[in-house]
Write the structure tokens for this entry.
Amino acid sequence: MKENRPSVTAQRVAMQRAAHQLLDDPKVFDDPVALRIIGKESASALQADPRQYETTPLASYLRAFVAARSRYAEDELGLGIRRGVRQYIILGAGLDTFAYRKPCPEGTLHVFEVDHPSTQTWKRARLDEVGLTLPGDLTFAPVDFETQTLEEGLRDAGYDPGKRTFFSWLGVTEYLTTEAVMATLRFIASAPKGSGIVFDYMISPSLLTPAQRARFDALARRVESAGEPWQAFFDPGLLARDLGAMGFEHTEDLGPEEINSRYFQDRKDGLRVGSLSHLMNARV
Ligand SMILES: C[S@@+](CC[C@H](N)C(=O)[O-])C[C@H]1O[C@@H](n2cnc3c(N)ncnc32)[C@H](O)[C@@H]1O
């Protein structure tokens, strides 16, 4: 990320979630706050022309993936709550709206939004601007994953390391160094049994077919020109092995086929995810 500037990609993916609410039926991820969080001007423009981001054939793949990863993370969070999870930590939260949808009775789940300080300051101003009230059991924890440990940031925010905790980390790992990703995952592996994480990651370019590689290069150029270049990529088999070595007892890796068959079957509109990213669910 560029110094002292909020994430540009955070607004972009929030626009995708908002466009999903307007364009796709049935919705894979239902977010009644998605339009509000993007700001009044962007919401009006999107309502006037919901296809304004459909500038390339890749746009619907991206929108589908952004919807699917939030759906998967929140489905897994729901299962975690039944297993006794009492803290939800949204890493690199961007304009995530979970906390503002009041999904759980007050006092049952403490939500922590962790993000780069510049993005978090910008989000808080946006929440204020669009009149979204902060729930009582939400804490903001500013952390730069490249220069601070998650442990320090959460400790300062009042995280209880003795409680079962669910983490989500959506649309973030590719923007970090591999070392920063691994250090964060090692910390999560030390959470109490029953804790877990859902995150998405990009497949190593060396594993892609030439056609996939061309799509990868086109998207990589776009994020690089926004000042947020992709840095970390993984081989699914090696990643599962590394997570096991860190202490995660159960891992589930969803590639495009699994994601499409789980969330995009039998759709009349043909909406589906592309092949560059996977979803990982790792449980301690
Ligand atoms: C593409 S956005 C995803 C936001 C959100 N998770 C979502 O899915 O809408 C990337 C997020 O990663 C965060 N991020 C990028 N580099 C970071 C860093 N070094 N430390 C903390 N957060 C970072 C950005 O601030 C931004 O919120």
